[in-house]
Amino acid sequence: MLREFGFNATFYLTAGFLGTPGYLSAGQVRDLDAQGFQIGCHSMTHPYLSDLPEPELKREIMDAKLHLETIVGHSIAHFSCPGGRYNQRTLQMARHAGFATVANSQFYSNSASTNPYELGRVAMLRDLSIEEFSAICRGRGLWKKRLRNQTRQVVQTILGNNAYDQMRSFLLDARRQ
Question: What pLDDT digit, counting tens, does each position of 45-68 carry?
């Protein structure tokens, strides 16, 4: 559908999940790559990178990159931080691995002056209406998303990743009932 309407996309893949139920197979990844879509890396197992000791951080960034490169047969240039959580060690490891860009979950439009190792991104979720998609593409309403994201980050920083996730899970369960 993206090709039909003339769009390109970068697919950030969690390398360790490939070939498991609900995730792409290596053949599907090669097919996307052959169609001209960018294949990016989203770590090996999707942990919060800022919580990891050095050896695990290396596995999640460097080993995941090598795994994807083995599948597509060429260099992977783009990395996206799981949960948008990263720190300076994460960025240094991504540079060392040879990534040209690192995306986080900051809601802002990127420009020529944006640091390529701190690219913002706006998630496009399943339940997004065409009107909301159109507004995002035009940059409208991003300030609301930025404000929500900044508030969430303050709470994450105060609570830490694990406590934040527990609180979030509790609130989502309560909302469903």
Answer: 999 999 999 999 999 999 999 999
- Find how far residue 177's CA is from the centre of its chain: 30
CB atoms within 10 A of CB 52: 19
Contact status, residue 64 vs residue 15, Cβ threshold 8 Å: yes
What percentage of the chain exceeds 90 in pLDDT? 53
Domain range annotation of the chain: 1-121, 128-177
Which CATH code, of 3.40.50.2300, 3.40.50.300, 3.40.720.10, 3.20.20.370, is assigned to 1-121? 3.20.20.370
Among 159, 13, 107, which residue's Cα sits nearest to residue 169?
159
Query: 3-state DSSP call for residue 66?
Result: helix
| Spatial separation of the C-alpha atoms in residues 155 and 172, rounded to whole Å | 16
Task: Check residue 41 and give its pLDDT.
Answer: 98
How much is the pLDDT for 28?
A: 97
- Cα distance between residue 73 and residue 76, in whole Å: 9
